[in-house]
Amino acid sequence: MKAFITVVGRDTVGVVSRVSTLCSELNINIEDISQSILQGMFAMIMLVDLAGCNVTHEELRARVEALGQEMEMQINLTRQEVFDAMHTI
Fold first, then answer.
1. Which of 38, 76, 80, 86 has its CA 20 to 30 A from that of 44?
2. pLDDT band at 33 (very low <50, low <70, confident <90, very high)
3. Domain limits at 15?
4. Separation between Cα atoms, residue 56 and residue 4, nearest integer Å
5. What pLDDT was estimated at residue 80?
6. List of residues 6+ apart from 44 with CB closer than 8 A
7. What are the residue ranges of helices labelled H in 3-88?
């Protein structure tokens, strides 16, 4: 199963590293990544493969939310099938 991880917030050192580390700890493969800094704001989109993820979906969401709070950034996880469903309407 594929998903998108989006990260938005004030630019700071280590954002990519911390999100990538979480993915590595949970056995989530990063397939593609795009990032930009816009007037001091950091924005990143990751396409990830959750097939090997070693926690439940609920725990994954909780870990993503906790990391976002810790970093004072907005981090969201959206499964690709949500986007697929939107395009079939």
1. 86
2. very high
3. 2-87
4. 17
5. 77
6. 5, 6, 7, 8, 15, 16, 19, 33, 34, 35, 36
7. 15-25, 57-71, 80-87
